[in-house]
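User:
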Amino acid sequence: MSVFFRSAEQRSLDWGDVYGGFTHDGLSFYGRSDAALRIVPVYAAVSLIADQFAVLPMSTFQSGSAPDADAAQIATPDFLANPDPRITVLDWRYQLAVSLKLRGNAYGMIGRDFLGRSAFIRWIHPDHVVVDESGDVPVYRIGGREETLAHHGGNILHIREFVQPGTIKGLSPIAQFRDVYETAHAATGYGRNWFKNSSRPSGILRNVKGTLKPGQATEAKELFMDSTRKSEPAVLDVNWEWQKLTISPDEAQFLQTIKATATQIAAIFRVSPEDIGGEAGNSRTYSNREMDQDVFNVRTLLPLTTRVELALKALLAPGQFVKFNMDVLNRPSLMDRSKAYSENLRNGSQTLPEVRKKENRPPLTPQQIADWQAWYATFKSESESTSTSSSSVQK
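Assistant: Predicted structure:
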């Protein structure tokens, strides 16, 4: 397998390409990302973050020459607009986010053109990278090749999640909260093993009178099972009694344990518990859900986008930087947008062409503007006349 992620068609990615393609062999659970994805809340949290990050629009800016000058938007360099020609930019960002959230590190190999400029960035599978931190400058070993960071003159872009003192390697949210994650894995394994391998009988067929002779218990069980297997009524005489076993309160609590663990995993990945199968801390209303995206942007996406922005800035020309636009994820209703646009037009913070552009509408032609002004003048005079009449009647 190549040290790079294999290409994907459109949005479809092979999980083995992203996470390593290992099978769980009973070794260290935390070194096997595919084992981590067997827990539904973890998969839900990682895919939610990666998907939302992948669709964010990104723009490039050039800082003004004067300290108080505004930054101007410029064309995004080709190596960021199309960072890996083998896959889409959506897949590229998805790989980046998944690598950070499940491994804590994203290692990118920078390809150069004949002038030495950045031509592409290809994510390397974290398992194929060994970082030597013994010297003043870290050395990255990929197969038999040694590289250094781009700002040290090398070809490696290294983005980290959580970094502890004394190392430049990152930790994933899972590694940061290993004890909680271990609880989730143990709970999931417990449930699977209990339902698959439990020695508890499904019920008790009891002889309530007398003692059975050798062989009678087996014969009675076989006759009873044969009857129920054929979905026929089971007829018992006065000597027999059937009692179904139910799950004890402690065992029923297992399902609640899974739900609680999903809530804990939501806290680890900074997502809403109900989005990954957990429980919210209080009652949910429309206003709560309306604010969820704002909270998600601040506590989950903002740290991720800031890490990526700072890392990519090191590859750009002096004074250039990139910014992700998270506002597109929290689009108000049509009525709320109309009210905001009206206020912005009234106070001059936006122009009519800017408003129409946000709504994906073309600028008005001169004839359309003239028609609109004529209609608005008539409508406004009628409205004011009606309002004046109403005021007079009330007085």
